[in-house]
Specification:
- There is one protein chain.
- The chain has 207 residues and is α/β, with parallel strands linked by helices.
- It folds into 2 domains: 5-58, no CATH class; 63-206, Glutaredoxin (3-Layer(aba) Sandwich), CATH 3.40.30.
- Helix content is 48%, strand content 16%.
- It is built from 7 helices and 6 strands, in the order ααβαβαβαβαββα.
- It has helices spanning 5-27, 38-58, 68-77, 93-109, 127-136, 153-158, 194-206, and strands spanning 63-66, 82-88, 114-120, 143-147, 168-172, 178-183.
- The protein has a 6-stranded mixed beta sheet.
- The chain is globular.
Length: 207
């Protein structure tokens, strides 16, 4: 029985379309069967980004506003540990650049008895901004404070920062005594270095 001409042409067109589709699928770039599917990569990347965002959001930063008396009381609470206090501010670029070093010290030497405290000299009304920056630096595991006196001369006087500048560091021994101060000297050719802070911390931890 002979097929109708229309039906014959339909089957030929269908076969031709299948052949062209296979040809295009073989030679189009990115369609190597050994390569991962773009959609799969995109889904995996999006899932990873989502987990990272959730992890960041979960690391809450507690920021406590303190005066000098409250600061001294907190230092006393940590007797038995070496305490490093990093005085800084969000408006101080060198302070922000050195924050990762402070955080790294806490992570590396915390198990040996180091307690790290950050003291912000920002205005207390900027508390959320300060907390956001600390969270971006992953400083949630540190003890984070903000001076109730803000960034003016009163903070410098209250916390005995003679140079009137930050970054500034105070290092206390296990008995709560102030043993080392690292502060900027505008008249000095060279300033303190992170390596000097590390060495002083190691010395007190070894006592």
């Amino acid at each position: 029985m002979r097929e109708r001409p229309g039906r014959f042409r339909f089957w030929h067109l269908l076969v031709a379309a299948a052949v062209i589709g296979a040809f295009v699928g073989i030679f189009l770039p990115g369609n190597d069967p050994d390569d991962p599917a773009p959609d799969d990569i995109s889904i995996e990347e999006e899932a990873t980004k989502g987990l990272n965002r959730r992890a960041t959001a979960q690391e809450q930063v507690e920021l406590t506003i303190v005066d000098r008396d409250q600061y001294d009381a907190l230092i006393g609470e940590h007797r038995g540990k070496v305490v490093l206090v990093d005085f800084w501010a969000t408006w101080c670029l060198p302070c922000i650049e050195q924050l990762p070093h402070t955080i790294e010290l806490a992570e590396r030497l915390g198990p040996r008895g180091l307690e790290v405290v950050t003291m912000s000299f920002d205005d207390p009304v900027e508390k959320q901004h300060v907390a956001d920056l600390l969270r971006s630096k992953q400083a949630g595991r540190l003890t984070n404070l903000i001076s109730q006196y803000g960034g003016g001369p009163q903070s410098m006087t209250a916390f005995e920062i003679e140079s009137g500048a930050v970054p500034h560091y105070k290092l206390y021994d296990r008995a709560g005594r102030l043993r080392h101060t690292f502060e900027l000297d505008p008249l000095a050719r060279e300033q303190f270095t992170p390596q000097e802070i590390d060495a002083a911390v190691e010395q007190l931890l070894a006592e």
